[in-house]
Design goal:
This protein is an alpha/beta fold. The protein is built from 13 helices and 12 strands. Helix 8 links the parallel strand 8 and strand 9. It is globular and about 45 Å long.
Length: 387
């Protein structure tokens, strides 16, 4: 502030996503690439290990960080630690939200789709794309495009980087390349970007980036390394993330990666905290699905994640499962004549209910020539699914 003994301080609201470490492209949602890379060059590292080290590096030569030589520092009013850096006085959240909406509108316009069609609550058959491994550590864009073209006739949307896409196993560059390619190749299909990760920081970071890239909704879940958070802490974290995002959010309700057995009460509270447009229910519990349908009716669509839970007795709003990648019989699910027998037979044939379903699905897609390799990405230490 003018006249302040420390011109680097400004009286701004505290950032809504607390941090311990500082990551290079988490500059409090500054999406100015020059600023981001300037921070990376100045630190000469991906992140700093403590606020003290961050302060030492930053304030040693603040002029190097941003083109105009100004550095604004935010801090919690009740804490001494540096919380984030911003290179602009204008609200990064507001600017980022506007930029993301601009990208979404451009996608809809170029694809000839209406705003209403692509901003409605997710429903129908949605394809949870696998992440095809390319040469070396990269991701195959041809494999992403191959899947999209194959399922286009019978799906209503795409959901990359959730469990079928090994979201928690992907490095940040792999995740970013997958989401970016899916958005670019969707050609009118809504993209609900999975932000599954093994820790909170990475999930938050992915959610903010996916929104900026123009995803039609952000899909978030409890990370595997949730630190045995209490229910109140969990809800607080989701609430803070929701307020940092400007667009729609889908809650991914699962336990095999997160290790958290979420019941109906907590599931509904999370959906309310996130103001979720949909919940992907992968808990494989008919009673829980029934309660979600009853308690979230008219507010949050329920998307079934297990093929053996699809039933006329559980009239869900949509389906997101691996069989959607392999069989067009899933197109009948929300028609006037669902082919329940065909769906059951195809489910058994492709083994999509088995624990190794990712390998099975990738192998089948590889045999069809849709992806270049059936290889899976390396597991993550500390994730129950990879143990």
């Amino acid at each position: 502030m003018p006249g302040s003994p420390d011109g680097a301080f400004v009286d701004e609201p505290a950032r809504c996503l607390p941090r311990v470490d500082f990551w290079k492209d988490e500059v409090d949602r500054v999406y100015n690439a020059r600023s981001t890379y300037a921070v990376e060059r100045a630190f000469r590292r991906d992140h700093t290990g403590s606020d003290g080290l961050l302060a030492e590096d930053v304030f040693a030569d603040a002029g190097r960080l941003f083109d105009d030589g100004r550095l604004l520092r935010r801090r919690h009013r009740d804490a001494d630690s540096i919380d984030a850096l911003v290179g602009q006085k204008a609200s990064p959240v507001t600017e980022g939200t506007l930029d993301a909406e601009r990208v979404r509108r451009q996608r809809r316009s170029s694809a000839g789709s209406s705003d209403a069609a692509m901003t409605a609550r997710p429903s129908g058959v949605i394809a949870p794309l696998v992440t095809p491994m390319g040469f070396g550590p990269g991701v195959s864009e041809e494999g992403i495009d191959g899947q999209i073209q194959a399922v286009r006739p019978w799906v209503s949307g795409l959901m990359p980087c959730i469990s079928s896409g090994e979201g928690w196993r992907l490095t940040q560059p792999q995740w970013r390349a997958t989401v970016e390619a899916t958005i670019r190749m969707a050609d009118g299909l809504p993209v609900y970007a999975g932000c599954q990760a093994s820790d909170w920081r990475t999930m938050e970071r992915r959610a903010l980036e996916a929104e900026q890239m123009g995803a039609d909704a952000i899909v978030i879940s409890i990370p595997a390394r949730h630190g045995h958070s209490s229910t109140s802490t969990l809800l607080e974290k989701f609430g803070l993330l929701r307020r940092a995002l400007g667009g729609p959010v889908v809650y991914y309700l699962e336990s095999f990666v997160s290790g958290w057995d979420v019941g109906a009460d907590l599931g509904v509270r999370i959906c309310e905290e996130l103001d979720a447009v949909a919940v992907k229910d992968s808990m494989r519990n008919a009673q829980l699905t029934s309660e979600l349908l009853e308690r979230l009716a008219g507010r949050t669509n329920v998307l079934q994640g297990w093929e053996d839970m699809l039933s006329p007795d559980l009239p869900v709003d949509g389906y997101v499962g691996p069989l959607a990648l392999l069989s067009e019989c899933t197109a009948t699910l929300f028609s006037s004549d669902p082919q329940w027998g065909d769906i059951a037979r195809e489910t058994e044939r492709f083994g999509v209910l088995d624990r190794d379903y990712i390998a099975r699905v990738k192998t089948e897609l590889h045999l069809r020539g849709l992806i270049p390799s059936a290889a899976e990405f390396p597991g993550v230490h500390g994730v129950a699914w990879d143990s």
